[in-house]
């Protein structure tokens, strides 16, 4: 981890430490993708979970933007970004956004849940653009869920409408831990209940890698921090184990008394863990 620590310290020393922000849309492959860019310094790219958006990273952006450039992206089909109009891939969308923002240096990708697909695929497709990965309670292409099942949500959307489907998803056991904190759960509800529901009603034309990421993990050379909430469901714990077993330069850590949304439930612990990894390599 020594090279990661040195490169980040050098970049931090050249940062002016002033958080500057802007947001907007970038036209990519037939759609407008929304982003927020805050701060100055080495680039951190934040990737959200399904039905969520850039708002889930507010506590991280507030914490890191004094020393880093924080870029929060609404992945295609979520938040303020366009719904898919044809074949696309998250990793190519991210690459296009970075190019349009003139971010040429390698980046750190920080992902929760579905965002892990985007982060891992990007690291495999563009290893030279990937400085490090932080993967928290993520899923990756090729993993077959055993308990987590979104089919009932799609069926509800078709039979009872989007609002009922979004409420059903919000009631999923994966959010049981978040439900213990009324502020966190209300924030989750703001995002999930406002979701367009596009993916509940349509076949998603998203394209991954061949072979899928789960079969290519040993090719990842970027230092990787794998985080799980202690109370997250077994599927996501198993993915974390697979990642740690197959990514050579990886650390695996757990946040006590947190579940699937560990960055929102325990933001101080999450931020400290990520900061130690980026600055100290541990």
Description of the molecule:
With 282 residues, the protein is of the alpha/beta class. It has a single domain (2-141, 205-280), classed as Alpha/Beta hydrolase fold, catalytic domain (Rossmann fold, 3-Layer(aba) Sandwich). The chain is 38% helix and 18% strand. It is built from eleven helices and eight strands. The chain has helices at 2-14, 58-64, 90-100, 115-125, 151-160, 162-170, 182-192, 198-201, 234-246, 262-265, 267-280; strands spanning 21-28, 31-38, 43-47, 69-73, 107-112, 130-136, 224-229, 250-255. Strand 1 and strand 2 form a beta hairpin. Helix 2 (58-64) packs across helix 11 (267-280) and helix 5 (151-160) runs antiparallel to helix 6 (162-170).
Spatial arrangement of strands, main beta sheet: 1-2-4-3-5-6-7-8
N-to-C terminal Cα separation, in Å?
8 Å
In CATH, the topology is named Rossmann fold
User: What is the CATH superfamily label?
Assistant: Alpha/Beta hydrolase fold, catalytic domain
Task: List the main descriptive attributes of the protein structure presented here.
282 residues; alpha/beta; Rossmann fold; eight-stranded mixed sheet; 11 helices; 8 strands; 18% strand; globular
């Amino acid at each position: 981890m020594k090279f990661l620590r040195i490169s980040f310290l050098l970049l931090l020393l050249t940062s002016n430490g002033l958080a500057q922000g802007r947001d907007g849309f970038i036209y990519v492959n037939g759609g407008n993708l929304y982003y927020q860019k805050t701060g100055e310094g080495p680039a951190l790219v934040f990737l959200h979970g399904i039905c969520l958006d850039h708002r889930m990273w507010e506590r991280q952006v507030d914490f890191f933007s004094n020393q880093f450039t924080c870029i929060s992206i609404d992945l295609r089909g979520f938040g303020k970004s366009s719904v898919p109009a044809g074949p696309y891939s998250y990793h190519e969308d991210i690459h296009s956004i970075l190019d349009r923002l003139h971010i040429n240096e390698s980046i750190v990708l920080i992902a929760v849940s579905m965002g892990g697909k985007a982060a891992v695929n990007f690291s495999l497709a563009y290893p030279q653009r990937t400085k490090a990965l932080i993967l928290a309670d993520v899923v990756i292409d090729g993993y077959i869920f055993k308990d987590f099942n979104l089919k009932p949500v799609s069926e509800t959307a078709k039979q009872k409408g989007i609002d009922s489907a979004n409420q059903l998803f919000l009631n999923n056991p994966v959010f049981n831990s978040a439900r213990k904190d009324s502020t966190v759960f209300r924030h989750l509800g703001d995002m999930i209940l406002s979701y367009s529901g596009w993916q509940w009603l349509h076949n998603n034309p998203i394209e991954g890698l061949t072979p899928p990421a789960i079969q290519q993990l040993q090719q990842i050379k970027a230092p990787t921090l794998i985080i799980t909430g202690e109370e997250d469901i077994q599927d996501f714990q198993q993915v974390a184990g697979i990642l740690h077993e197959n990514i050579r330069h990886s650390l695996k850590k757990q946040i006590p008394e947190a579940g699937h949304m560990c960055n929102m439930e325990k933001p101080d612990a999450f931020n400290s863990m990520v900061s130690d990894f980026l600055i100290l390599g541990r």
